[in-house]
Write a structure and sequence with these properties.
heterodimer; A: 111 residues; mainly beta; six-stranded mixed sheet; four-stranded antiparallel sheet; 12 strands; B: 114 residues; seven-stranded mixed sheet; 11 strands
């Protein structure tokens, strides 16, 4: 079964600085999709970014970008120019058929 | 606002009881997914429906069941409730029900079993 591992339970970043959240996954498939979701204190699940495994180019969405290393099965999220509103739980997810989520990383942003 | 609605927002009940959670997908979405999030944990996939038919089943207990109706809304039924069933239950919807789909999440139903 595919598993998703987020090795950093908690991370902290200073406002306006850059932080990288790590995610690794295990799969024998070659075609799949990867996602980062943000869950603020409101508990709403918000899609941050998605990556298709067949695309070598790393996805970007404004201040959010990923470093997708297919051979290493690694999918990290970089948040640039961190803002107070970025404080949340971040979940990495793998999807081939059903979506599997990692345990999450709690990001704190210090003013 | 994702366009996915879930009712009720909060539910408090006792062990051994049965509850029903309701979800209405976004307009045009044919697939509905149910997830369980226990305290400070990731989401666990429970079950998926596509256009009224069960498409995938995850870690769903036998005490739990779900269905999707002709109008595409879905209900998750939880019976013989235990303390460990206390969690946030999310519904999500997508257009095609494929792994590549963007899933839009509802606000969740917080279930507390006392």
């Amino acid at each position: 079964a595919q598993t998703v591992t987020q090795s950093q339970p908690e991370m902290s970043v200073q406002e306006a600085e850059t932080v990288t959240l790590s995610c690794t996954y295990d799969t024998s498939e070659s075609d799949y999709y990867l996602f980062w979701y943000k869950q603020p204190p409101s508990r709403q699940m918000i899609l941050v970014i998605r990556q298709e495994a067949y695309k070598q180019q790393n996805a970007t969405e404004n201040r959010f970008s990923v470093n997708f290393q297919k051979a290493a099965k690694s999918f990290s999220l970089k948040i640039s120019d961190s803002q107070l509103g970025d404080a949340a739980m971040y979940f990495c997810a793998y999807s081939e058929r059903e979506r599997r989520f990692g345990a999450g990383t709690r990001l704190t942003v210090k003013p | 606002d994702s366009g996915v609605t879930q009712t009720p927002k909060h539910l408090i009940t006792a062990t051994g009881q049965r509850v029903t959670l309701r979800c209405s997908p976004r307009s045009g979405d044919l697939s509905v997914y149910w997830y369980q999030q226990s305290l400070d944990q990731g989401l666990q996939f429970l079950i998926q429906y596509y256009n009224g038919e069960e498409r995938a089943k995850g870690n769903i207990l036998e005490r739990f069941s779900a269905q999707q109706f002709p109008d595409l809304h879905s209900e998750l039924n939880l019976s013989s409730l235990e303390l460990g069933d206390s969690a946030l239950y999310f519904c999500a919807s997508s257009v095609e029900g494929q792994g590549r789909d963007t899933q839009y999440f509802g606000p969740g139903t917080r279930l507390t079993v006392l």
